[in-house]
TrEMBL record:
Residues 4-204 form the 3-hydroxyacyl-CoA dehydrogenase NAD binding domain. InterPro entries: 3-OHacyl-CoA_DH (IPR022694), 3-OHacyl-CoA_DH_NAD-bd (IPR006176), 3HC_DH_C (IPR006108), 6-PGluconate_DH-like_C_sf (IPR008927), 6PGD_dom2 (IPR013328), NAD(P)-bd_dom_sf (IPR036291). This is 3-hydroxyacyl-CoA dehydrogenase. The record marks 168 as: Important for catalytic activity. Signal peptide: none annotated. GO terms for molecular function: NAD+ binding; oxidoreductase activity, acting on the CH-OH group of donors, NAD or NADP as acceptor. It comes from Acidiplasma cupricumulans.
């Protein structure tokens, strides 16, 4: 039943979510506050596709040398088979044809599902839910990709709160398949179930998408647990127990984390980490106390990878 998907906010997440829907052959309308930001989102999508294609271009050669390093000699025919097996490519033109960028709400009016992925500020999100009310059909589902804010409060600004849900994707959604889904307090389980079923039929670049059901409680499942780890890592660093490099190494090699907590915080964006921790502190109290180390990085404009500097320096 879903055909046209709208995304509000063409930043790191919004544009990557748009790519996942276009990859699954949905029509996508990607909206930002102006055309420059929307175009930047489209450029991000182009980069995602280029990186995917160049990875798969190199993969057969890597696979052949991996096998030959084990002492096996492959025939030309076998190499050809490996080549064909790994010949995944995304047709960039075809994918881009399914994505329309815009700075106007009216272009979202034919969407069956709209996912808001703007800044992590409750007032901004509430404002978007209020403004879009005038443009969507009564049947459309209105979702938010918030990491920590109240879906229920956003729903109270929307004309049909029953249709408001959480659809929380993880970064980057083209490789991480998890999506947390929750109805707002006023919402119907039916809208959440529709989103669940939709995602169950979708895939990203590596896996089938994996939705899980949760409730509209601050931080939901993953971030409530993960942000505690990041915050505790900053405290361990502040107490001079170890360098940030050694803390990252310890968590990767001792706890099986794919990225260390500082690498992850830089990847997510320190502004997002900061905003989410502030929300958690308001709701859960002192166990989410903010370190001045993080506050100072924000004051300095060091937002992580996206700004070239965060806990680590990416400019070198
Ligand atoms: N970065 C992550 O790892 C991550 C992971 C999961 C969820 N999220 C959530 O996704 C949302 C977006 O995060 P991001 O990292 O993509 O942020 P971002 O700063 O990269 O992008 C936000 C985009 O929203 C646009 N925007 C702001 N107000 C708008 C409005 N009124 N209408 C349309 N567009 C508007 C901005 O111009 C910007 O392009 C946040 O709620 C965040 O908590 C982020």
């Amino acid at each position: 039943m879903f055909k046209n998907i709208g995304i509000i906010g063409a930043g790191a997440m919004g544009s990557a979510i748009a790519e996942v829907f276009a990859y699954n052959e949905f029509n996508v309308v990607l909206k930002d506050v102006n055309m420059d930001f929307a175009t930047r989102g489209l450029k991000h999508i182009e980069k995602i596709v280029d990186d995917y294609n160049s990875y798969y271009e190199r993969l057969p050669e890597r696979e052949v040398s991996r096998i030959e390093r084990m002492g096996l000699k492959l025939s030309l025919e076998q190499k050809e088979k490996i080549n064909n097996y790994f010949s995944h490519k995304i047709d960039k033109n075809d994918l881009e044809k399914r994505i329309k960028i815009t700075d106007k709400y009216e272009d979202l009016s034919k969407c069956d599902l709209v996912i808001e992925a703007a800044f992590e500020k409750q007032e901004i999100k509430n404002g978007i839910f209020k403004e879009i009310s005038g443009y969507l059909s009564d049947d459309a589902i209105m979702a938010t990709n918030t990491s920590s804010l109240s879906v229920t409060e956003m729903a109270s600004y929307y004309k049909n709160p029953k249709k408001v849900i959480l659809m929380h994707f993880f970064n980057p959604p083209y490789t991480l398949p998890l999506v947390e889904i929750a109805p707002s307090t006023q919402g119907s389980d039916d809208a959440a179930k529709q989103a669940y079923d939709l995602l169950k039929g979708m895939k990203n670049h590596r896996n089938n998408m994996q939705p899980v059901m949760t409730r509209d409680k601050t931080g939901f499942i993953v971030n409530r647990i993960l942000l505690q780890v990041i915050n505790e890592a900053i405290k361990v660093y502040d107490e001079n127990i170890a360098t940030k490099e050694d803390i990252d190494t310890a968590m990767k090699y001792g706890a099986g984390f794919p990225m260390g907590p500082f690498e992850l915080a830089d990847y997510v964006g320190l502004d997002i980490v900061y905003d989410v921790l502030k929300t958690f502190k308001d709701v859960y109290g002192d166990r989410f106390n903010l370190s001045e180390t993080l506050t100072n990085l924000i004051r300095a404009g060091y937002m992580g990878r996206k700004s070239g500097r965060g806990f680590y320096d990416y400019t070198k």
